[in-house]
Amino acid sequence: MAKVKKFPAFNLTVIGRYSALVDFLTKMENLPFFIRVLTIDVAPAEKEKQQQAAAGTLASGGSAAGGEEGPGSKEVKMSLLVVIYTNE
Known about the structure:
The protein is 25% helix and 35% strand. It is α+β, with helices and mostly antiparallel strands.
């Protein structure tokens, strides 16, 4: 395996509905190059949502009325460290 330092690595933080984050991961998986997820952390986004509401903004997929309810509608924060491998 090639050394990680030769390839770009990115820290990503994504906040949104759980179902939208799963869709994001699926699309990332289907990109035309190899992406390796080194770390992933998923937590409720309640703290961020409260801070944004105080500032007058909403997280991705949020609504002032609370929006849809269901298993995929919970707001979460996902942090990823990914490496993108390309042909040299």
